[in-house]
Amino acid sequence: MQILAIDRPRGTWGRSIAKICVIFPGQSAPSQLRQTSQMSEYQYFEFLALDKLLPRELQQHLSRLSSRSHVSASRYAVHYDYGNFPGDPDTLIGDHFDAHLHVAAWGSRHVLLKVPARDLPLSVAAQYATEQVVEVWSDADSTVIAIRLDADDGYLEFDRPLYFEDDDDTSSPLADIASARGSLRRGDLRLLYLAWLVALVRGDVDDDDVEPPVPPGLDHLDEPLKAFVAFFELPETMIAAAAEGSAAASSPDVDDPLEEWWTLDAVEPYVAALPHAQLVDIVTSMVLGDGNAADALTQQIRHNVRDDLGLDPEDDVTTPTERRSAGAVLFREAQLLAKPDHTAPPNTSQPDTVRPEVDLDALIAEATADCYSPDEAAMGFQNFIDDELELPFTVQVLGETVTVVEVDISGEDTLVARCERGRHRQVIDLRDLPTPDPAPPGWQWVQAYRRWAG
Hints:
By secondary structure, the protein is an alpha+beta fold. 32% of the residues lie in helices and 19% in strands. The strands form 2 sheets. Strands 2-1-8-9-7-6-3-5-4 form a 9-stranded antiparallel beta sheet. Strands 10-11-12-13 form a 4-stranded antiparallel beta sheet.
């Protein structure tokens, strides 16, 4: 019997007491820690192996899971336009991978990171857990952090829709986000605090809850943390409000207790003490292109040094003298938003320009005639748009020119535009699609749908 999971109890938002989940041999992580959607629409799954390469037999097994798979010795990615991933991401993380990203057309965004427990004890990571969004658990000798945003019903709204492909697509941010894993291993807990902020923004933290320990350096985020912030669309004003409770780092990187000690003369005896077979494996992995082999060796030596120096990873947590309530952090962000010099992010959508002779109410009445439910009405609008809207057409989305190739129904009563840009595809709620200039023939039916859908 092992204690393998810590999770906040369901249905008790704001509780500061964590629940310890006891897992017996042969069991996997608890079902409440896994949220695999069954919806059939665009989804993207990506996994990275950072500490060791994937055996060839495992690569072959993964490639058989889906014909849409892209598999290498360190990466597995797959996307679906209609269908669902047959595997369990939590199990794959526990057994083979160190980082995972999931994106779905209905708004779900997940990131999972696995860190050796000796570098990030479960008791440290658990301080940043929330009821639903941020979960942590132990899996063998590792601590797993899961940040999951899911909609309870319908769609989860983001300012920027995401679409990634699996064939060597470099637009996915997982590699950048996974780089923060190395910082976590060195005691930099900023990613964990930012994950807690994501939960706070999404309403998964009670106003009376006290913020977790605030690490130093929130006012100076490195590129991996910026990638994490961008992926979950964490507002800059929220980070600024949180940073007011964060000690300033003495350098762009968070203070490292081993920084002054880490010299050639000090490290060399630890390298020399490693077993010859282990050194051969590490050098071989590096020759074969495993860029993480050296980092894994570095972390092992750091752990040995910390043991010899009597440094405890739990001592690395730095917190302000007085920790604030979650409500106080939200209030401070509201104050920052209200400041006259605050510049709101540009609105990428454009208002519809309706010609005076177009009677949108008449179009709505025509599209919804004899319809007895919202989903029937949506189908009515789709039929007229299919017949009248001239496709394809181009439109500017977030400064990029994309081509709208189809309007389709997603969910029960929502119309979406399916867009392409080169190899990339994305799905945008038709209500959020910017107005093309010039508007194509038949655009008035899109305007009528927007008025009806609100």
